[in-house]
Amino acid sequence: MNNHAPVPVGVLGASGYVGQELLRLLAGHPAVTVAFATAESAAGTELEGHRLVHVADAPMQRAEIVLSALPHGVSGRYVNEARAVGRRAVDLSADFRLSPEAIYGLTEFARPRVAAAELVANPGCYPTAALLALIPLAQRGLIDSSREVIIDAASGVTGAGRSPRPELLFGEVAEDYRAYSAGNTHRHLPELKASLAREGGYTGDLVFTPHLLPVKRGILETIHVPLTHPLDAGAAVELFVTAYDGEPCVQVLRDRLPSLQDVVYRNRVALGVVSVGEVSRPRVTVIAAIDNLVKGAAGQAIQNMNLMLGLPETAGLVC
Amino acid sequence: MNNHAPVPVGVLGASGYVGQELLRLLAGHPAVTVAFATAESAAGTELEGHRLVHVADAPMQRAEIVLSALPHGVSGRYVNEARAVGRRAVDLSADFRLSPEAIYGLTEFARPRVAAAELVANPGCYPTAALLALIPLAQRGLIDSSREVIIDAASGVTGAGRSPRPELLFGEVAEDYRAYSAGNTHRHLPELKASLAREGGYTGDLVFTPHLLPVKRGILETIHVPLTHPLDAGAAVELFVTAYDGEPCVQVLRDRLPSLQDVVYRNRVALGVVSVGEVSRPRVTVIAAIDNLVKGAAGQAIQNMNLMLGLPETAGLVC
Amino acid sequence: MNNHAPVPVGVLGASGYVGQELLRLLAGHPAVTVAFATAESAAGTELEGHRLVHVADAPMQRAEIVLSALPHGVSGRYVNEARAVGRRAVDLSADFRLSPEAIYGLTEFARPRVAAAELVANPGCYPTAALLALIPLAQRGLIDSSREVIIDAASGVTGAGRSPRPELLFGEVAEDYRAYSAGNTHRHLPELKASLAREGGYTGDLVFTPHLLPVKRGILETIHVPLTHPLDAGAAVELFVTAYDGEPCVQVLRDRLPSLQDVVYRNRVALGVVSVGEVSRPRVTVIAAIDNLVKGAAGQAIQNMNLMLGLPETAGLVC
Amino acid sequence: MNNHAPVPVGVLGASGYVGQELLRLLAGHPAVTVAFATAESAAGTELEGHRLVHVADAPMQRAEIVLSALPHGVSGRYVNEARAVGRRAVDLSADFRLSPEAIYGLTEFARPRVAAAELVANPGCYPTAALLALIPLAQRGLIDSSREVIIDAASGVTGAGRSPRPELLFGEVAEDYRAYSAGNTHRHLPELKASLAREGGYTGDLVFTPHLLPVKRGILETIHVPLTHPLDAGAAVELFVTAYDGEPCVQVLRDRLPSLQDVVYRNRVALGVVSVGEVSRPRVTVIAAIDNLVKGAAGQAIQNMNLMLGLPETAGLVC
After folding, report:
1. Taking CA atoms, which of A68, A272, B289, C259 is between 20 and 30 Å from C41?
2. DSSP type of residue B297
3. From CA D54, how far away is CA B6, in angstroms rounded?
4. Element (H, E) at D98
5. Model pTM greater than 0.90?
6. Is B214 in contact with A174 (CB distance < 8 Å)?
7. ipTM of this model?
8. Which C-chain residues 113-172 have CB contacts (< 8 A) with chain D?
9. CA atoms in the 13 A half-sphere facing the CB of C252
10. Segment A266-276 mean pLDDT
11. Are the CB atoms for D307 and D115 separated by under 8 Å?
12. Are the beta carbons of D249 and D188 closer than 8 angstroms?
């Protein structure tokens, strides 16, 4: 890889939290170079040494691959422009996640498809953590669909983007904690259900409730899984250890549960599992943690990009 | 009440977070005075204008009522000393919560018993929020015991006390979030189950998972309740509004969900409820928020003390 | 005071952080009642049990006294409307702080004037802390004007108001710390200099540099004072103890320095002073802490209101 | 460098915040490998894939260079053991900072000496920021020694280490801010004065007051410098731009002041400067920001190690 010229990469939407993280990670990537980076209100200023241009002026041809962190509803249009001039793309927005045009880029379960893809839809942050926790159980038919899977997820504020909304002010968020989009109304739910059905075959009920944490980055999901038959703590851990054997970006903890500290600034999901006592039917609780900006967005996008370019999967990433 | 001499109150264990909150609230109470306050390593120093004495030197006779914020396992002994010299007591530790000697002081469901009690066991912080959320549903037979009630609770660090444990350092807790005592291993579970059976008649399964939040104070519980029959959002809210009609320290929100901001520094539980969509069987999610140091400890203790002394129930409290 | 009807008070600008704090404090005040409270975008909603009205619809006549937490530049106009119908007022904005029409309400140094005033200009948060620290030294001629007084002040974000500015987002402020308005460009500087000259007779140079802290409330000022002659640590403390003897809202610490914890949610300035070693000319460092929303705004306004109404000075306040 | 075997490095004291940061940075370093890492209470556990051993069992010979993050007073002994078996060392403690045996490793002002050194004393975090801000002004004779240089420094809690002291609990530090070691009593003062005299020739008075910030990492210093003659804002900025021309790890900001966000997780000092108005004699305020764990400790140690090993100075570092 040291003998090749660096691959030129274009970044759309570089001034939001995800876009900034893309530039930060690409700056340390040994085999690529940033061909251009776009922003709207910040156009003309510099970020990580790159002069930002309007997306309408993006020189798509100069990039071999385009990563888009544009907002949902906007991203699709510019990703299509890149593709129209023959460029491959990873779209970090939700615009293609339910579309057959794109490969859904949950890396660990889609390697060959991602490697060959022209267009990868990078998974949402909440679904990434939930899917990596649930697919191994679902694939083995262990989830009892007569009782609901309950997911309580908590995210740091960078997950909500960088627009100045009053409820995201420090004076409101600090020392606070709240649920939002309760009652299964969050826009990530269809993505989560579709992917869990496709990869794990589970089509039962889910209850997904996100919460806003007073931290900058990180997602922790507490996932309550009713089981078809008992699984003691040791067996549950071994199931995940086996399922993710050799995976560079999945950390299965044996003797404690993960917290945000295990994952921030890393392209890693950390998983822990306990068997639930004092109940009459079998169940486990799985804890999954990721950095919403890394494995939940920019990092997984680069992991996918690496596969598409034939580079080592974790080049430029700390797992 | 203005014509009477203030009632002398003794405070055991005044230097922890709960004890400090007791002194802070009693300082603003119009009808009582602090007769003495105890601490061990801080003995001899002043707090809120009171010289702290060792608990072994507490002049129990000088108080008409004793509030104990001593640690679990220690509190019972000194509460018994106070009772041995004829003093009534509110014990904020867990020492009497499962004992027939004491009245369990969940104020809203125990007023006459508390008023007449010699000894009140003040409820734990997690159970207070969960019980106030679940009892109205349980009393009406609405909880489907063939599916588990799932409680994900998140607490600020003052709930863990003031001992210098490494995992409670700012450098560890800030920007972090974690589950602990997962798998139904938390010591509050038996208290919660016993009280829910006694007050609400619910004896089905519960899964209780506490989490540590990077905030100083406040508890938010996300409580997933399977229902025996459907309840739309409006009906669910009205059920709680009716159940708590006239209650000064219960706030039922009609059009949004509560967060810690609604309750910190107040002796209040805030409740919100939503009906869950996209599932095949009926369920609601209830959100309950309290300040762990106020309605979850010192405030509820004073609410109970007021009843025992025949004072207005909310004297000295902001609900 | 218990024999009188409560005094009706009007609150202008109730939905900002200072206005909310006014309503919170007035809710616990034993001798006043809120006649009306205004807000613009939040008009029609309820706050602390009061239906908010547009300021243009404020029934000024119904109040005996009006407290204005409207923005600078807007407040003056409505305060003048209140005065035009014969109402006394405390203006918490900067609009009258340099005006001879108003009494500058630094309570501890203006009691008789405040008590008799028709219009009180409530001091700014930064000047309140700095003045209470510097006036005792200035009055005694101890400040060496051949060297500058250097004030580094740090404030929680509620000092910057509740408008959704991008730089006040949690994602920007958390884990950050910054100076702003450096180089003596902050708008509080003229107020501070004028007041220090008037009350203390000091007309030498000052350098004032504010900083933004990742906390919700509280101001701490580190004030470096060159002295005309040496003052050892004990003498410096005694000077402040003597200067503020009997003051209910000034706490002079003898054996440690104050921090925000000493003052938040209290109408108090906490002061500490040390003699500086390892230098060739005498100087002290004074640390002053206040809650920017209480002694720095709403609390001091109520302290002044109490004086104007002949009520006990600390009624409704925790000092 | 790609043709050489990685250089084996030993890390002493790997379980504290600085030691963890060393391991994190070394994990991403392209030209070195960790030969061993030591810890005491955590001995036997794994960190970043390394099994921790007791320092008494450290196989010093296996390393070509030893980095010590042991505590002050302990580090010197083990660094001497490493040197006794012929190993070069970078000591991150204070043990050799005032000793003629060691080269003081403020990299930007000591490159040739560091490159040739057997033993480098890595500068303290507070002095690193202050010296990089002051040396350019001192070297040009611009500091007016008839008035004191005043430094107010604020540090995140990782600067205080990882021992469980009560005052470092989250419940105490969050929402708080305090000065400590005021009055020129901080142990970093002699190091700062000695280095400023040696590198800049300034021997006048300094007042240094550290503060504890409620953030995990980062130091910001507000440095008030009296000048011998006026320097307008543009000239002041140009002075620093010129002084640090070509320096990879010094960022001079032209149009704003730095904050912690500019430097966390980077081996960089960010500098800003303003001319002070509204005063009668010339002065500037310089703001210097570093990450206390990176440029203030582990990062600068690796920068020095790279020089000692003839590697590119910023290998393994993000500046």
Report:
1. B289
2. I
3. 61
4. none
5. yes
6. no
7. 0.97
8. 147-148, 150, 152, 154, 156, 172
9. 21
10. 97
11. yes
12. no
